[in-house]
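To assess whether the prediction recovers the assembly geometry, we first specified each molecular entity separately, as shown.
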Amino acid sequence: MNAVIKSHVISLLEKNIRYDKRKFDQFRPIEIEYGISSKSAEGSARVKIGETEVVAGIKMELGTPYPDQPDKGTIVANVELLPLSSPEFETGPPGIESIELARSVVDRGIRESNAIDFKKLCIKKGEKMWITYIDGYSINDAGNLADAIGLAALAALKDAKFPKYDEKTEKIDYEEKTKKKLELKELPIPITVIKIRDKFIIDPLLEEEECAEARLTVTTIENGDIVALQKGGEAPLTEEEIEKMVDLSLEKGKEIRKLLK
Amino acid sequence: MGELHVKERDIVVPGEVLATGMDFLPAGGAYRDKELIIASQVGLIAVSGRLVKVVALNWKYLPKKGDTVIGQVVEITQNNWFVDIGYMNDAAISLKEGTIEYIPRGADLSQYYNYGDYVVASVCNMSRLLDLTMKGPGLRKLTGGRIIKINPAKVPRIIGKEGSMITMIKQATDCKIIAGQNGYVWMSGLDPEKERVAVEAIRLIERKAHIQGLTEEVKSFMEKELGVKNDIQ
Amino acid sequence: MTYNKRSDGRKFDELRPIKAEVGVIPRAEGSARFQIGKTVAVAAVYGPRPLFPKFLKNNERGVLRCYYNMLSFSGSGERVRPGPSRRSKEIGLVTEKALAPALDLTAFPGSTIDVFIELVQTDAGTRCAGITAAAMALADAGFPMKDLVSAIAVGRIDDKIVIDVDKSEEDYEGGMADISIAMMPRTGQVTMLQMDGYLKRDELREVLKTAQKACAEIYKNQKEAFEARYTK
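The predicted structure of the complete assembly is given in tokenized form:
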């Protein structure tokens, strides 16, 4: 069946029509819900882009700072493409797709943009730091999980508050949350653009992803700087095409960022 | 004597007691447990005489002999074509059932039905393999067009009473449409915009199969989308 | 010792607030979300699909496989390490056994029906919430079922029998029993019965009666979820 749907998507595109009638640079309706697991998670959020649904949560744990960065804490990003969300995903440890999402879509943007001041995650120099775990999960895959997970991770971080840390016992009391927010200095928004024939498409549907010859996920911050780039797909991209895709990402990134403010 | 506990168009869920008494008979997604008639599927109640039927709102397609199905050729061997009809296993069309003409041994089967071709076929046997035949009125290869997959439970609604719903859509959108029992619907239209309207009309029926006044709603949807008040019957 | 008051002020025979929805994961054949108190379980059904490895295939009927998992941020303390644990495997198995009696899979020989349960937030009664969500998801998928299975944790806290054990009761330091029960509500047939703690012989009778009342109430919520889905 896939070959048929693919050719249909492409023949519509050649007439400048998208499979679901949207404009080429149009996102499906986006919903962001904060604090979906407020009892158990330090921060959490659900994001829906059209029918694609993902959730993300923040858990903070204690760790020992890296020897070369004694006054800093860190983040650890993890993404799971749950078999719950699609017949294509299998049970088992995260596959290459999940790992790519965790590293390039979630981790890189946040790290490179200094969205979180890692110094604020230090508890005691050289001895104790906060490890901020960011866990993203797919709940329903209707295309463009990458942007959805990127957005959910930011929303969950926005929602996050430090748990209570008892200096005497050196233990975390998860039952009691403080009012101290994690604080995001930047909102690095990842936007994925896919290329089918000579068309560039934002927020691809599943059917469009199947036809993608190449894809570029660009993470940008408010001032327009680029903090992460990840190309996927088998076809090469020309310099001109990359410029075009980056411009599109930047523009959409600005739009999406407003939703998080 | 017996007592009916539900009425027409009630939504019921598995385990719900629909009727008490040996007079009543279960149909569709319902079963009998001693003197009780109980729902076994989520659905709408349809009562006719002593028959208490649960019309399931969602069901897995289970091939039955005589079903008309639409599928796509996914494999060709020396003696069989294999067709994807959305069931767990692919269905097989043997040399004998391929056409009314005689197909000699060693013939190139792809000349008749090739990889990717759509066919409308009939379930002829439920042996170890799922068997289809192409011999029968209206059974043939379908050229062009595309297939959309819908919930098999909604096919009767899409066809409508004596084909009224599907005919309405075909005429309004100038599309050829054939709906298979297996939930695969083949459509082919000359105008992509009209074809899109036909697809959306079918998806609308799929979503709202359980409401009343669906025919009117589909009619006004198509009128709105097509811009012109076609003489939609 | 006597148990007088529940920490959240509930009556002894009162369930926590319930929120049930079906059809929440369009990609799946059937799906549901079931929330009781702060415990949130999401379930999705895929299948029938071919079963591999072949030696696990049953040629008489389809096989039901249930997977239970907690999201990393769903636990009430530290982060939950991703991946299956002995506990999640045990719960998966118990869930299969709780649901199988309600299903007739002879129409799908050689296949598997996979049910995935994810806990988004946990606050006691997790396996019960998972089973309740899974039953709704199977019904949503259209699989014929004898009844909608529902499950609840009943507790004996000192001298009182309580419905829908919460976290503080699970951790109660006095004499207690925490019993997880799954039932086919119409007939009261029990499909899962597990206990932590200890119980006097005649307390068991009261536990089972109480469970039946609770499951009947949960069944109403499950039905409402389907009504809500189809009255639009």
